[in-house]
Amino acid sequence: MAGAPGAAAPPAPLLVACALGIEQLALRSGKRPGGPVRVLRTGMGPRAAEAAVAAALAPGGLSDAAVIASGFCAGLAPGMHPGDLVVAEETRDADSATPCTGTGLLVAALARAVPGSAVHTGPLTGSDHVVRGPERAALRATGAVAVDMESAATLRTALCHGPRPVAAVRVVVDAPEHELVRIGTVRGGISAFRVLRAVLPAFYEWHRSLLLPRR
Question: CB-hemisphere CA count at 13 Å for 135?
């Protein structure tokens, strides 16, 4: 049914894309914000992310949604710990670099939502495989602060389907001094899961702030 003449359009939704079932569980099981938010599980790897995000943003779906790529990542900088947050200033892969929207807004919102957690900002680089050992150091030398498999593909695909706010927020699940064998089996994985459960209200605050008229 069409809205009444002159009625305000409904706010654009927020799409939060993650790869793994455990990431989706964390995001869905935390405190729910009051706005229109969909948590999409894309599957692992850049190609899966591209296909799932493209389908979600197709006409008739969430075509005008803001998009946040989220989930776990590998930290690259010495001194990072499981449970630290990474807010990307840009995402990178072999094809392109994608600037993120409202990084400062997200950092401030996350500080309120997850007090006490360290928040790192900088480039978030992409890979098509799990990164370990010397390869991690080589990626750090490019200036990147963290690496994951889906964020760059997610944001690049989102912008291919029209202009919109995009961002990437990841939780460090392993780091140079804290490499994990399998998520969720040791304390570091549990710490990262708990932090990821707490971030959704910050995403909603970022989204709402971007919708407010500027003075």
Answer: 11
pLDDT score for 185: 42
**Residues in CB range of 148: below 8 A, 6 or more apart:** 71, 72, 73, 74, 124, 126, 127, 170
Are 85 and 117 in contact by the 8 Å Cβ rule? The answer is yes
* 92 dihedral zone (left: phi>0; alpha: psi -120 to 50; beta): beta
Average pLDDT over residues 148-177: 92
The H or E element containing residue 120 is strand 119-126
Reported pTM: 0.88
Instruction: Specify burial of residue 144 (Cβ count, 10 A radius: 0-12, 13-18, 19+).
Output: buried
Structure tokens belonging to residue 120: 């790192």
Assess contact for 16 and 204: CB atoms under 8 A.
Answer: no
